[in-house]
Amino acid sequence: MDWTWFHKFGSPPHVYRLAGLLTPWFAWPAALLILGALYGGLVLAPPDYQQGDGFRIIYVHAPSAWLAVMIYAVMATAAGVGLIWRMKVAHAVAASCAGVGAWFTVVSLLTGMLWGKPMWGTYWVWDPRLTAQLILLFLYLGFMGLRASIDDVSRADRASAVLALVGVVNLPIIRYSVEWWNSIHQAPSVMKMDRPSMPFDMLAPLLAMLLGFSLYFGAVLLIRLRAEILRRERNASWIREELT
Amino acid sequence: MSGPGVFRAAVWVVQRDLRLATRRPAQVLQPLAFFAVVTLLFPLGYTPELAKLRAIAPGVLWVAALLASMLALESLFREDADDGTLEQFVVSGQPLTILLLAKTATHWLLTGLPLTLMAPLVGGALGVPFAALGGILSSLVLGTISLSLIGAVGAGLTLASRRGGVLLSLLTLPLAVPVLIFGARATELAIAGDSLTAPLYLLGAVAVLGLTLAPLAAAAAVRIGLE
Amino acid sequence: MSELTAENIWFYRGDYPVLRALSFALRAGECLQIRGPNGAGKTTLLRVLAGLLQAEEGVVRWRGEAIGGRESGFLASLAYLPHQPPLKAELSGAENVHFAVGLRRRCTAQQVRAALQRVGAAAFADRPVRSLSAGQRRRIAFAALHLDPARLWLLDEPTTNLDAEGQSMVSELLEQHLAGGGLSVAATHQALALSAGRLVALELSGVGE
After folding, report:
1. DSSP letter for each residue of B139-208
2. Which chain A residues are closer than 8 Å to C13 by Cβ?
3. Which range of residues forms the domain containing residue B166?
4. Domains contained in chain B, number
5. Residue B1 lies in a domain
6. Residue B50 lies in a domain
7. Which of A137, A149, A165, A171 has the highest number of chain B CBs within 10 A, making it the mutation to test binding with B?
8. Which residues 6-65 of chain C have a CB within 8 Å of chain A?
9. Can you give the residue range of the structural domain that contains A210?
């Protein structure tokens, strides 16, 4: 029973300080990895035998698309923890995830469209991956919209947590249904990344970029989490001590 | 305690909501009229050629059904929350999930079922062959059950928010994508005269999953909404 | 022996503690009258007791067991009459009573009639609730309460909008309920005409610490 009390008053300052300590450990490796991967992907990797240099956008597109999905999973997990154990910091994590996740989704959509222009001659094709990303964007927008429409933070936390959990159950079904829909309508699908023969100097920058993006997400999440905690605890006495 | 069983309480809720519906028939008829009007706009806005209409009929039918089902959602929990009925559900000692499932069933009886029954009329206007109606009806029955269940979650979640409306659509429409895809595909196959077993199974699977999980989510959402 | 106890209840709205370290104990046959200015947390306390709100800290016990969970055992022995009587405007008073009670127990049309008679609502029981006055609606709600087998009544402003005769009707119902071994928690400013020893007062102060 004392746990709710502990989480309410005990945990936020601790998490706030811990997040501050951890941020550089995510930010610096992220910067190095992303720069290295950019160099590796844009300069060192050989041009694709079919797509020439056009394929190089994969180094931004694919990691953003993965992150967009992964962040939703992180968000739903945090929301679930917050809901089950009535843990406010977990809700703050979920709330901090949404914006970042939505932006990665937007980036993956934009880079997908940019890639589509040379490949398909048009910016938008109802490719299953792009379509699923678009629906994911709406799931993020729904999550943020629901949060924004509820005044009381605690109710906003729990209502949006229920939505995130419903979304995470639904997400695989949505992706499956979109794949299924695509397989029937035979829309072109050029973005097949799972070619077994991707040479190492093409693949390595991609993996480095994925790791770099993940660490970048970690850093941004920690910064946003600190801001979120400050906003929620603005009347708490520990903040006055912390900031003076 | 010799209280009524869960099942009886659920039947009680359905009876009450049906009787309420008879007191405000306009509210019940609106989504149905909407469904008819939206589908009938397509021949006017696109082409009166039945062959062309037949090609887009699956999409038109399902999008219209989705939106019509959504129209009736706004009032699904909101009125009961405002007049205190939902609070009485929570303190009744009966499982909230079952009572909300009963309300969702009423929503289906008043929108999903009539929409399905209207499909032959509306389908006829879109050039759907008579032989396809059986398949279309069965896909609509399964699909609208899922739509009501997904909608119940959305309606529960928006209880806590200041405005429902657009937000409710934003929450529920993405979740309804699989139903739309499977349902439209089933309709397409039915019109082509092919076997629609695969999409029907998928629609059935979604409905079963919805029946299991949606009432839990809706109950959690309603409890939060009532605080 | 105390059937309903609250131990050190804290409840927050945002950062503001609405209920602060609140405790009480209530025995069978007693009515706890919650008093206090507007905003003192009277309704909040009733909603915590009904399990509609969860206290941040502290525990409410019913016959020694915490109500925290969703045990229908507690909820089945509870009736909550909020400030706004929970009635459907389109249905008649009799229909409202019938459906409200039917959710919890079997009851016949005669029992509904008798209850409506008892609270002085027989004359307008067949009109849609929409057309009734606030006091008439409250009588309808009391008819449903009268038929409810609950041992614990949570009443929010039970006598508001009622005329003198209605208020004494409520006092009679309450007295009868308590005499039968029932308990009640009532948030009200008005004096409740109960026999000696039944009333326990709880004063909530609206002022922050």
Report:
1. HHHHHHHHHHHHHHHHHHHGGGSS--HHHHHHHHHHHTHHHHHHHHHHHHHHHHT---HHHHHHHHHHHH
2. 152
3. 6-226
4. 1
5. no
6. yes
7. A149
8. 13-15, 56-57, 59
9. 2-243
Taking CA atoms, what residue in C is nearest to A3? C57
The CATH number given to whatever domain includes residue A87 is 1.20.120
**C76 CA: distance to closest CA in chain B (Å):** 5
A164 Cα to chain B: minimum distance (Å)? 11
- Please say whether the structural domain C1-77+150-209 has been given the CATH code 3.40.50.300: yes
Return the bridge partners of C19, or none: C11
pLDDT one-digit tens code per residue, A83-126: 998 888 999 999 999 999 999 999 999 999 998 888 888 888 88
> Packing angle between helix A128-149 and helix A88-120, nearest 10 degrees?
150
Candidates B66, B173, B166, B148; CA nearest to A135 is B173
* Separation of alpha carbons A205 and A40, rounded Å: 5
Q: How many residues does chain A have?
A: 244
Task: Please name the member of B16, B84, B90 whose beta carbon is closest to the beta carbon of C84.
Answer: B84
- Phi and psi (nearest 5°) for B13? -65, -45
State the Cα–Cα distance between residues A113 and C35, nearest whole angstrom: 65
Residue with tokens 């019938």: C98
ipTM at complex level: 0.92
Q: Is B3 close to C104, i.e. CB distance below 8 A?
A: yes
Total domains in chain A come to 1
Chain A contact set for C17 (CB, 8 A): none
Task: Give residue limits of the domains in chain C.
Answer: 1-77+150-209, 86-149
Neighbors of chain C by Cβ distance (3+ pairs < 8 Å): A, B
- Helix, strand, coil shares, percent, chain A, to 5: 85, 0, 15
Optimal mutation site among B27, B88, B159, interface C, most CBs of chain C within 10 A: B88
Reading chain B (227 residues) residue by residue, the pLDDT tens digits are: 445 688 889 999 999 999 999 998 998 999 999 999 999 899 999 999 999 999 999 999 999 999 999 988 888 999 999 999 999 999 988 899 999 999 999 999 999 999 999 999 999 999 999 999 999 999 999 999 999 999 999 999 999 887 777 899 999 999 999 999 999 999 999 999 999 999 999 999 999 999 999 999 999 999 999 98
Could you tell me which residues are beta bridge partners of residue C79?
A: C153
